[in-house]
Amino acid sequence: MFHCHSFSGYYRVNYDTRNWLLLSLRLAYNVSMIPAENKAQIINDAYALASSGRLDFAVGLETLMFLQRETEASVWQSAVKLITKMHDNIGSTAANPLFEVSI
Q: pTM for the complete prediction?
């Protein structure tokens, strides 16, 4: 994850599976190390990529594990919207049991 001041715009970020899982572990270990705006974007990217088939839903759900320690309202606002959409989209996929346990 990096921040570049010379460009502006909205970009989706997709990591390989290993890096998504490492990012999820880092967030779960220290939720305050990443700014709220970036955490909301991570959740949003994971959902959008999983919905489009570019990321396994189970890996996307791992990005939500840090929410049990999250205190920032802006992150929760993003998460609640996307959790609702995820519930509607996951249906009977293989990720559904993980979703039910996670949420």
A: 0.76
